[in-house]
Amino acid sequence: MTQHLYPMMIDLTGRRCLVVGGGTVAERKVASLLAGGGDVVVVSPSLTSGLMDRFRAGEIECRLRPYRREDGEGCFLVIAATDKEAVNRQVYEDARARGQWINVVDRPDLCNFIVPSAVRRGRLTIAVSTAGASPSLAKEIRMRLETEYGPEYEVFLDLLVEMRKRIQSKVDDTRLRYRLMGELVQEEWIRLCREDPERARRRMEEWVDRNILEEMAVAADSAAGISG
Ligand SMILES: C[C@@]1(CC(=O)O)c2cc3[nH]c(cc4nc(cc5[nH]c(cc(n2)[C@H]1CCC(=O)O)[C@@](C)(CC(=O)O)[C@@H]5CCC(=O)O)C(CC(=O)O)=C4CCC(=O)O)c(CCC(=O)O)c3CC(=O)O
Ligand SMILES: NC(=O)C1=CN([C@@H]2O[C@H](COP(=O)(O)OP(=O)(O)OC[C@H]3O[C@@H](n4cnc5c(N)ncnc54)[C@H](O)[C@@H]3O)[C@@H](O)[C@H]2O)C=CC1
């Protein structure tokens, strides 16, 4: 695995994603594909109970048999997650021939993408990769980040989206818009989101409106100064 990997955030909505194998590793990959919005198809003669639950709940499509070449047709990406080297190799060859994104879970050298360890808090994703050097370290760092970045970040980001719309609709001046958006990113607000989300929304709205008014007053004063 090379060290110069390019981090991308991909929207898998409406994209067919094939996972070959139904073991614990496949189950983990399925979870992250679903979180990314993918339409997941699993091909495997056996499934973990977690995958079986997802199948019964209609979250994934399953073919309860060994892999066949045609399983990959029309897929955006393919993950080979069986415990059989020859099967994984065949899945790789087929995906390469179709020009698909391919991840072979026991062969980093056969992957054209790898899956990072990720903390997800609503719109916030913090992804960690060691370029395959130590998935255990990636996981360890992910768990440390999870304690530091709690559920309040989802609340905070949702509020920032609202405030950003509010500022964009009320302020024409780009510099003022950038300043307000930047100043909203404060530890104080994040703490308030953790303690009292509704209060955080009210106080943020007040803060934004007050700052816009103050800025307009300053602008009016200086305009009067120039003309007078
Ligand atoms: C290259 C990569 C390809 C890919 O799978 O995309 C890959 C490859 C391999 N992993 C192996 C082993 C383990 N993998 C994990 C866990 C995770 N592995 C994940 C990703 C990746 N694993 C990609 C690189 C990511 C990076 O950039 O670092 C994570 C982050 C994401 C996910 O899987 O969704 C997820 C943590 C999720 C989380 O909890 O946060 C654990 C720990 C555990 O299971 O608890 C172990 C055992 C301990 C150890 O080895 O560290 C072996 C094994 C073989 C062997 O020796 O037999 C190979 C093959 C090889 O290296 O040859
Ligand atoms: N990349 C990663 O994150 C990690 C990779 N690994 C490697 O991943 C591989 C899989 O590990 P586990 O999920 O723990 O194995 P597992 O033994 O739990 O699952 C293997 C699955 O492959 C299926 N399978 C076997 N032949 C098949 C075929 N012809 N077509 C379709 N499915 C078939 C089995 O039915 C089973 O569901 C192992 O080679 C392991 O070394 C292990 C840990 C982490």
From TrEMBL:
Ranges where the Siroheme synthase central domain occurs: 121-146
Annotated metabolic or biological route of this protein: Porphyrin-containing compound metabolism; siroheme biosynthesis; sirohydrochlorin from precorrin-2: step 1/1
Catalytic activity: precorrin-2 + NAD(+) = sirohydrochlorin + NADH + 2 H(+)
EC number: 1.3.1.76
UniProt entry keywords in alphabetical sequence: NAD, Oxidoreductase, Porphyrin biosynthesis
One annotated GO molecular function: precorrin-2 dehydrogenase activity
Highest taxon above the source species: Bacteria
UniProt keyword annotation of rRNA-binding present: no
Biological process per Gene Ontology, one example term: siroheme biosynthetic process
NCBIfam families, A to Z: cysG_Nterm
Protein name per Swiss-Prot or TrEMBL: precorrin-2 dehydrogenase
Organism: Planifilum fulgidum
